[in-house]
Amino acid sequence: MSDVVWRPEDDSKIRPPLHEGQVYRPDILNVIETTLDGLSGELRALSLDIHDHPELKFEEKYAHNAYTAFMEKHDFTVTKNYLLETAWVATYIHGQGGRVLGVNSEMDALPGIGHACGHNLIGISGVAVALAAKAVMERLNIDGKVVLLGTPAEEGGFGKVILYEKGAYDEMDVCLMCHPAPGPRHSISLSGCLAISRVTVEYQGHTAHAGLSPWEGQNALDAAVLAYNNVSLLRQQIKPTHRVHGIFEGKDWAPNIIPDHAIMQWLVRAPTTSEMEDTRKRVISCFEAAALASGCKVEITIGSVGNEIRQNKTLSDELADVVLKRYGAIDYDWGIKSASTDFGNITYLMPGLHPGFSIPTIPDGGNHTTGFTEAARSEVSHDACLVVSKALAAVGMRVLTDEAFLQKVKDTFEEDKKLRV
């Protein structure tokens, strides 16, 4: 499949053939396109500024200040340090009443490799959608409200879940965002993602002199190694769509002391939350067996759970219609299909849409690599980000202008609840 992946050397001017037909409200899409084409330079400067200042989860102070200053400059009402220290919200209201369009901008980077998941692009996409919606509402006199939420700590901190629990999403009718990934040239993906659970495993043993009297000890590191090997063997019997991966942690270890303490951090993933829970039970048995074999005590803590993305079908069908008629290709196999995001939890709680969009990447340079860090700052990647932002803005404006469409979105959300297994 690597031969279909968009590479930096490929001609970005070659686009997939478009479908015939007219999109919903071409006058709206024309305003969106004109607005974002005019703001492209400003948005690229913002993206590169964020990319040049990577910050870890819950530490996104530079990004917080850069985004809030940008939104204030564009006449949004901004609340800094909104419910979390590095979260923020920018709102725009036109007219009286109307519906509420929610949009997310992520900010955090990864340890050691910076913006290797392209959150600089995700961040400016949220900004772009909000600015485009504002321009349409002003130009075409459309009532409603736009809420752009700056969300910290997607990379393991479940920032969106915390904000949801604090009420940040309460007034939104829908919420939109996107994510870059490898994929076919000029493709936008409507794949989902994997449900995920964090599990912390702590082994407690007993120290001893490793040379003089090792039999006096219970080796916690041995327990961790056994657990790791147990999981490695289990992988042969789990489905290929499931993922289990973990690391060792320890302190005060020395080769001449039997380690009495070891910690492991594990992630268990599967296509649905229920499948993940089933696999997690089997993984936990691996941890318990290691404790029994090594004579150590074990404490197993199940941490945060991230749900799979439930793409709202009505929203995704509308996005596909816009993309296929105006911009490029739709796929269901790329995006972040085998990764995870806290936006999955949001889609369990309200109607949401989270397309992936392809950017040019080198071989073995997908998300969470230094190659992707470089890819996330290229001009072609920026252009791809603006394309998906235009399509998302068009979907968002249909939410604000078509009451029957919004009702169908809500009905689809309720129907999807019954399909979750």
From TrEMBL:
<dbReference type="InterPro" id="IPR002933">
    <property type="entry name" value="Peptidase_M20"/>
</dbReference>
<dbReference type="InterPro" id="IPR017144">
    <property type="entry name" value="Xaa-Arg_dipeptidase"/>
</dbReference>
<protein>
    <recommendedName>
        <fullName>Peptidase M20 domain-containing protein 2</fullName>
    </recommendedName>
</protein>
<dbReference type="InterPro" id="IPR052030">
    <property type="entry name" value="Peptidase_M20/M20A_hydrolases"/>
</dbReference>
<dbReference type="InterPro" id="IPR036264">
    <property type="entry name" value="Bact_exopeptidase_dim_dom"/>
</dbReference>
<dbReference type="GO" id="GO:0016805">
    <property type="term" value="F:dipeptidase activity"/>
</dbReference>
<dbReference type="Pfam" id="PF01546">
    <property type="entry name" value="Peptidase_M20"/>
</dbReference>
<feature type="domain" description="Peptidase M20 dimerisation">
    <location>
        <begin position="198"/>
        <end position="291"/>
    </location>
</feature>
<comment type="similarity">
    <text>Belongs to the peptidase M20A family.</text>
</comment>
<dbReference type="InterPro" id="IPR017439">
    <property type="entry name" value="Amidohydrolase"/>
</dbReference>
<dbReference type="Pfam" id="PF07687">
    <property type="entry name" value="M20_dimer"/>
</dbReference>
<dbReference type="InterPro" id="IPR011650">
    <property type="entry name" value="Peptidase_M20_dimer"/>
</dbReference>
